[in-house]
Write a structure and sequence with these properties.
Blueprint lengths: L3 H9 L1 H18 L5 H19 L8 E11 L1 H10 L6 H8 L6 E12 L5 E12 L12 E6 L2
Antiparallel strand pairs: 1-2, 2-3, 3-4
């Protein structure tokens, strides 16, 4: 065991101070992991999808996400046609811009599996595909009216 004198030497030594500083710095750096701008946008899409799901639930507070997958696809013609076929409100000016390929539209898709109580308070598990169409990667917000939900049969 260390005596009190040995412990005081250890705690006041330059090596201990350097070790403590390095450990504290690593701990703080690990707590402040910054999200990339692209990851922030992906999180906004996921949040908008979940908000739209909750808006249709009998008890939104009972919503619990179980799992999700994400995917994004770029390409003007493919996405413009998908947007036209989905129940998503996209201004005609944006559709024209997409068709003219002046932008680089992106389709963000999420498949979200979740549990939620129904109107009888029985817990049910559902899976939904959520689609959000953006004109490019520089969008700043996600308009819920431009999010389409497609329920997947189990």
């Amino acid at each position: 065991m260390f005596s009190l004198k040995d412990r005081n030497k250890l705690c006041t030594s330059p090596t201990f101070a350097a070790f403590a500083f390095a450990l504290t710095t690593l701990w703080i750096a690990g707590c402040n992991v910054a999200e990339s701008p692209e990851q922030k946008l992906k999180n906004k899409v996921t949040s908008a999808c979940e908000d739209k799901i909750k808006a249709g639930l009998a008890s939104p507070s009972g919503y619990k996400r179980i799992a999700y997958t994400e995917q994004s696809t770029e390409g003007s013609e493919f996405i413009a046609n998908r947007a036209r076929n989905a129940n998503v409100k996209i201004p005609q000016s944006e559709m024209t811009q997409w068709m003219a390929s002046s932008g680089n539209p992106i389709l963000y898709e999420r498949e979200i599996e979740y549990d939620a109580p129904n109107q009888y308070n029985a817990l049910i598990r559902l899976k939904v595909r959520c689609e959000f169409y953006a004109t490019d990667k520089n969008f700043q917000s996600v308009d819920p009216s431009r999010v389409a939900l497609v329920f997947i049969a189990r």
